[in-house]
Amino acid sequence: MRFKRWTGSLITRLVVFSLLLLLVVQVAGFAVVRRSIEFNARQQVARELDVAENVWARMLAQNVEKLRQSATLLASDFGFRSAINSGDTETVQSVLENHGSRIGATVTAFLDTGFKVTASSVADDKMGEASKLIAGLPAYLSQTPAGAHLTVLNGVPYQFVMVPMRAPVTIGWVLMGFPVSVDLANEMQLLLKVNVVMLTGAERERSLAVSTLPSTDADSLLRGKNQTETVLGDELVLVRHVQQASYSGQVETLLLRSAEEVLAPYRRLQLLLALINAGGLLLFAVASSWMAQRITLPLRDLLDATLRLGRGEYQTPIQHLHRQDEIGNLARSFDHMRVDIDAQQTEIRHLAYWDRLTGLPNRERFRDVLEQAIADNTASARPVAVISLDLDRFKHVNDVLGYAFGDRLLQAVAGRLQRLVTSPEDLVARRGGNEFAVLLQGADAQMAMEFTQRIARSFEVPLAFDDQTIDLSAGMGVACWPSDADSADLLLSRSEIAMYAAKRKLSGALLYDPSFDSASSQMLSLLTELRRAVEGNELRLFLQPKVSLVDGTVVAAEALVRWEHPQRGLVPPMQFIPFAEQTGFVRKLTLWMFEEAARLMGDARVQSHPLKISINLSTRDLLDPDLSVRLGSLLQRYGVPATQFCLEITESAIMDDPQRAETTLNRLSEQGFQLSIDDFGTGYSSLAYLKRLPVDELKIDKSFVMGMEKDEDDAKIVRSTIDLAHNLGLSVVAEGVENAVILERLADLSCDEAQGYHISRPLPAEAFLSWRAQRAEAPLPEA
């Protein structure tokens, strides 16, 4: 693994790449030098062979001249002349042989003045071949330069000379033939260090005549064909082929010069150059390694620094900051990055565990401290208490006085809570929004409740900012470890449950009770089941009739939803409608009711006697920008006009966001829906909104209608509301009609429509249609 890391390092790659590059350059240079040396050596050997060729020709010529002088001495010899004059052929032949052997001539002959052979030293059995040569040779020799040509006789190259014999006039010619001996070739080899090989005969039938080489090397040359160079032994030898002029047969002289002698000085120079290159390569490797280390070791240090940064270690400074090169610049950049990241991480850690607005620990920090406190007190069973606190009316402060004022309020509350905590073990934290938490170590339930009283007393002093006085109050919940919970998360959760219970009951502070938790669990389970009720067809559409106080006919009905639970039976609306509104699920309930009502409109019994159905819209429905699109889609699907529906809106739903509510109501009115203000008189809206909104109907709250029989003030409110609505061109519906007396008084006050238990309780859709059919003959119930 270490070797793999070493071979894969940058320093190794730099050194290896540099060495390879240098090695390639050196090898290329060495190859060029070697090739140049060999080329120059061949050129030099070729020049030497040129000289050798000239010298060889000169030596042949000199040898012929030497032989002519010897032949001339023989021709002038008195004894030889006497033998010739005697005319005895045998004597002449004997003299020729004696004198020829004395001067080295193997072929001698005497020719008359007509160049006819009269005597010869050639044996009788060879006389025929010699006669043929001698017959034409004198005339040929007399016309060509002496020594320029050779004659092949029995595979041996000869040099022939012909000299006249005078007494005093020419009486004949002496012809002598001398074989080219190896001595002449050895002399050539000693003189110029050039080996000589003479070959005779045609190309395929060549024979070795003269050679200064060992027999094995000469045989290899004999087998070769026109080689310009060859290897003899371990030496490179260059070969020069010289075609010799010959009277008969073919003669080729091979001049061989060893290139090794010429290359030897260059070989030593190459060896020296190789040593220099090797030394340079080694020196370059050492220098490259040193330089690469100078570069890569700082980079490795920077790599280690990045690994430390990755592990979150930001305190160790980066090395090599003093360098003034690129490495130093990089190191300084890394160090600046380290410092910046350290500052950012410090800020992130602070933001992760501390609240920026109040400077208090946040929810996560509080949880960690609580877990540590439980762990520290486990052995001694020392109690730990958690107080959760939620400010009252904080949203109203933000809405009225602005968020900046709300922030100042939270800072002031944080300061008051911190002043109440005296023990260094205790902790105050902001859990988010307008919620705070207090950790008390060593405090039981009684001590924690006493601490909540101290908080309540500190809140009795109002806060004053910029001439604005704010009264403080809060709901507080207390949970203790280990009596109420065995873990930090559960302890926090149960303190919050107690806090929300205290806010609902307006009790100030409450100690956790298991009944709080079971009620919450039951409601959570109920809401979970409600989500499945729509898909499981557990919801039922009920209708409560509205009758006309003019003729008693059933002119409309209010659509209500009932939940027929498989195990719980009929669940009262007040047990699930409020929670559906809190979670936003009420929008699905509204669409379900509208779709069921639209489907009912297709019933023949409804179409024969038109009916208007009222459906309640919640606050979340009014804030839905796509409500009109969804309702329009349902109308188109069932082919029902919008005029057959009246949408009831409470005043409180409008006041949550008047502008958005007004926009939604205008869209619904443009579609053709009738709009009604439900529970009129219980809200806080002004008549200006009533004037601006596209309302068609007012629905008087049942609290006024039910009380008008015994309370004259309620009767006045009902009378005034009816007059107001009629003056504004609106119709009036009274709900909560419980008896005939109330029904008669409403008729006397010119109320348009009425609904209540005196007329009919809410009925299932089928039961309502049957009831309306029976009611058609007797519109008004008797008192």
Automatic annotation (TrEMBL):
EAL domain segment(s): 523-776
Q: Show the Gene3D superfamilies listed in the entry.
A: 3.30.70.270, 6.10.340.10, EAL domain
Q: Which residues cross the membrane?
A: 271-292
Q: Which positions fall inside the GGDEF domain?
A: 382-514
Q: Which InterPro entries match?
A: Cyclic-di-GMP_PDE-like, dCache_3, EAL_dom, EAL_sf, GGDEF_dom, HAMP_dom, Nucleotide_cyclase, Rev_trsase/Diguanyl_cyclase
UniProt keyword Mitochondrion present: no
Q: Does the keyword Membrane apply?
A: yes
Q: Can you name this protein?
A: EAL domain-containing protein
